[in-house]
Amino acid sequence: MAERHYIRQLATIISIDAVGFSRLMGIDDELAVAAFEERRDIITDSCGAFGGRTFGVAGDSIMAEFGNPIEALRAAFDFQDRIMALNASVGEEMRMPFRAGINTGDVIVREGRLYGDDVNIAARLQEFAPHDGLAISETTWHHVKDKTAAVFTDLGEFMLKNIALPVRVLIAGRGGNGATMTAPLAAIPTASGSYRPFDKGPPAIAVLPFQGDGSEPDVGYMADGIAEDIIYGLSNTRWLSVIAKGSSFQFRDDSLGTRLIGNALGARYIVGGTLARYSGQIRLNASLTDTSNGRLVWSQRFDRDLVDIFSLRDQIGSEIVSILDKEVDRAEQVRTFQVPWESLETWQLVRRGRWHMNRRTRGDTEIALEFFDKAYQEDPNSSAVLNELSWWYFWRAWLRFGDSDDLDKVEAFARKALLMDSLDARPHAYLGAADIMRGRPASAAEHLAEAIHINPSFAFARSAMGSARLLLGDAAGAIPFFLDTERLSPFDLYRFHNLGELAAAYCFVEDWPAAIAVADRSLNLSPSYFYARFLKIGALMRSGRRDDAERELAIFATRHPDFSEQRIRWIPFVDSAKNNFLIANFDQAKSIA
């Protein structure tokens, strides 16, 4: 057998796909083919003009190869501009936009074709792109970020189908001079026409029965029980539509594949998994798949000691529910970038607003409010919109140390949200959080208990309940709530705050090593969080670590030159001796500085 010779080289690949080709084929197949070929010629011409070449045309997809990532980006912008101009000259129903994904990496060249993971990554990236838009990998971005007038929006890391490692995805848009990581709304490329790639309304999720290891008789029952707990828990999140068990449990055999099952059930997301028991332990493998493209969104393994089967079911189920809520939310936030922002539905406006909110910059926070306000104008009775507005004003009130006007708005939106949906845990939690800010922890605890009763997996409500207990003087009783929050939401965006509260609780029970360790974890997530460093300094002094305390105090003074003890006295402990206790610990360090 003749030895095969392969050439490896660094290349930039553009994967290009026609949007709506099948729809046009159903209207007029000959006209659709002619339209595709006309646009394909534009793509070939633009790629050639910028030093690239097209290859691998298959159906309504095209690949192009470039040696220079900058030229690849320019070529993509060029052919998309030309195609948009062409689409503008025909009726809306006959427009054919193209989206593209760009990746740079190592490829194998064989007889004019390119192979390898980096080719496949480009193909997966184009699924993230808006119509007439571009999605690029972080690898390509590093090559072009300072050498082009484009603007970029970072969507985060994703596991792509059949790709071993996560890939960071960015949307590239046409911009002015300079490049920025955060594109304004107008910089996100928009599609011509009114075509929408997804069904209207919020997504549906289906939980399939988990596959149990048949060697143990009770494993199958436990697998079904966990899946049932997840269905129940997800239904309590309120914003997700959950397919009933009677329908999803018909698919015990997943050999049909997630796309076919999702289509049959009308579910955009499928949850599945396997459960095995061995040597006094269980191992659960769970996964979340996007049925629209077959992409694995999330997967995780849970290993637990098998002690109390019912408490174990409850613990694992609640953890998975909390994770799934956030992962589907994140996926839906990213999906909104595939829709022109002016065409977003109410629930999509909420998801886009949440995307900006999660970036935690002043500019993004203001943009988030624009999206929430637009959603409110479209549907002032949407509980989802009312909850997001309540959260937005709570966040600003927290930054402003309890601004009364903002807290009034928190309560107004939350109470209206309860009128719209009395079984939603979120308004109860936000009312509780507002009471905490107003110095009414006993009233807060009542609201938060109701929120936790409705949705036991609601990590924010558990963290807020810990804060209420802390303010009431029950530090020992607060600690389990903060630990539950860590278990339910280990990658939460606001985890630094929960850890800061936990550090305070450890200070009050005088577990100084734990207080120092937890404060460090908080500072690792948010180095500028003053409260965690304040607590750490006091705990170091009480531990006799004077030199370490002095070093931390120097950092504190640099980061927070305007700090005064009034910020600690503002914390609404029922017993002001608690404020004095924390301040006294800190003052010990100041006295040696």
Description:
- The protein has 593 residues and is α/β, with parallel strands linked by helices.
- Helices cover 53% and strands 17% of the residues.
- It contains 23 helices and 14 strands.
- The protein has helices at residues 21-27, 29-49, 69-88, 117-125, 138-144, 219-235, 245-248, 258-265, 309-335, 346-357, 362-378, 383-399, 404-420, 425-437, 441-454, 459-471, 475-488, 495-508, 512-525, 530-542, 546-559, 566-569, 576-592; strands spanning 7-18, 53-58, 61-66, 98-110, 113-115, 134-137, 151-158, 167-173, 204-207, 211-212, 241-242, 269-278, 281-290, 295-305.
- Strands 1, 2, 3, 4, 5, 6, 7 and 8 form an 8-stranded mixed sheet that branches. Strands 9, 10, 11, 12, 13 and 14 form a 6-stranded mixed sheet that branches.
- A hairpin with a 2-residue loop joins β2 (53-58) and β3.
- α18 (495-508) packs antiparallel against α19 (512-525).
- The longest helix is centred in the middle third of the chain and has 27 residues, at 309-335.
- The protein is globular and about 80 Å long.
- The termini are far apart.
- The model is unreliable at 177-199 (pLDDT under 50).
